[in-house]
Amino acid sequence: QVQLVESGGGLVQPGGSLRLSCVASGLTFSYAMGWFRQAPGKEREFVAAISSSDDTTYYADSVKGRFTISRDNAKNMVHLQMNSLKPEVTALYYCAADTKLATSSYDYWGQGTQVTVSS
Description:
By secondary structure, the protein is mainly β. 0% of the residues lie in helices and 50% in strands.
């Protein structure tokens, strides 16, 4: 049984940073991993993704230069470092896994971790 569990969300002031983490179990780590987010009243959107071999990353244009995705295959974890946070990135952030590197249609999803950027 595949499980993805996110952590690291919270309340942060504008301009601050957060590091989200996701630990995966029940799958071999030849999976690509992604981060998505969904704000209230909006559709879920792609944020970032990383290949199974850690050599290819994709980012949404809105987060390029501020967010960094990384993974630690030895620990079955993927991270999302978020810097220079703005209120508009407030959302529920989901970790996802799939056999292919993509910006949508992932097979497995976590329950999400809330990120709130507010003063």
